[in-house]
Specification:
With 313 residues, the chain is of the alpha/beta class. The chain is 44% helix and 15% strand. It has one domain: Alpha/Beta hydrolase fold, catalytic domain (Rossmann fold), CATH 3.40.50.1820. An eight-stranded mixed β-sheet has the order 1-2-4-3-5-6-7-8, sandwiched between helices. Helix 9 links the parallel strand 7 and strand 8.
Length: 313
């Protein structure tokens, strides 16, 4: 009798392991989705689709529709609109707020026929503004989103009231970051093959990350694994193309540069290049923060941005 019982126990354990492996990250995703839905409702943000010429972009929108000024927030590469959630709540009392999922990110579909360079993405932001009857806006962008914000300031200055570049891509850094060193060896930390690689990557994205349970981190890891091919294509389109080192002096709109000094993805040495290249650009750095100050310290970074916006009305 021992052998059948042993086999039954093994079969039961195997079945449970398979069920847990499938269900566990799915529960993490459900918990994450529920938490975001509750928080965005509390912060006065609602989900809305914005249709443009080549995409249907999902967004969060909030604040008074008839507010005199609008703030548009643009996420970084591989990220999505949720990184702005706790930062955005500080703006919705006095500003109309638009937070976009760029094509290939978040809830906006990836289309292999599209171009994902930052000039193309900047054009899509302008199209979204047109669709929503937004004449001018303050643009706040992080990482690739900061690169796009700079492209908007350069190519669509009449639509940009001011721009905030948070740990912005778009320049050749004087010093190599940890990511740059990895890329030089042929490894892209954004190309995730398993959950352990994601945990290593996640530690690079922030110095002071908000706490998340492991089941949510595993859900996020699985999402990166699923999207690896599309993310690789997007990276190829925007990375090392249309860099702005030689064009910074052409940017005339008010600019605030913000940088986490412990950024491992884009080296802090880039901040001075942005500031020195753009006339009258302001710079704020955060000694204890990493690549995403708006997520690591949303209240502090939002206060700094609001102070800048108040001077550029």
């Amino acid at each position: 009798m021992k052998k059948p019982i042993t086999l039954a126990v093994i079969a039961l354990a195997t079945s449970f392991a398979i069920w847990a492996g499938v269900t566990y990250p799915r529960i993490g995703g459900d918990v994450l989705h529920l938490a975001r839905s509750v928080e965005t409702a509390i912060y006065g943000l609602h989900r809305a689709e914005v249709e443009i010429s080549d995409s249907r972009m999902m967004s969060w929108q909030g604040g008074p529709q008839k507010a005199q000024e609008t703030v548009i927030m643009i996420h970084g590469y591989s990220s999505e609109k949720t990184v702005w959630m706790r930062f955005a709540k500080h703006f919705t009392d006095n500003y109309r707020v638009l937070i976009l999922d760029l094509p290939g990110h978040g809830e906006t579909a990836f289309d292999p026929a599209l171009k994902y360079d930052t000039v193309s993405q900047a054009r899509r932001v302008v199209e979204a503004m047109d669709a929503l009857n937004i004449e001018r806006a303050h643009i706040v962008g992080n990482s690739m989103g900061g690169f796009i914000a700079a492209q908007l300031a350069l190519h669509h200055a009449d639509r940009v009231q001011s721009a905030v570049l948070i740990d912005a891509a778009g320049l050749v850094a004087p010093q190599e970051s940890d990511m740059a060193k990895m890329l030089a060896t042929g490894r892209n930390p954004f190309e995730i093959h398993n959950r352990d690689e994601f945990i290593e990557f996640y530690a690079m994205t922030m110095a002071q990350p908000p706490w998340l349970p492991r089941m949510i981190l595993d859900h996020m890891a699985d999402d990166y694994i699923i999207r690896r091919e599309s993310l690789t294509r997007i990276f190829q389109d925007f990375h090392n193309t249309d860099f702005l080192d030689t064009r910074l002096s052409e940017i005339q709109v008010p600019i605030l540069i913000m940088w986490g000094e412990r950024d491992r993805l884009l080296h802090i040495s880039s901040a001075a290049v942005w500031q020195n290249g753009i006339a009258n650009a302001e710079l704020i750095t955060y000694p204890e923060l990493g690549h995403m100050p708006m997520l690591e310290a949303p209240s502090q970074s939002a206060t700094d941005v609001l102070r800048f916006l108040s001077k550029n009305r």
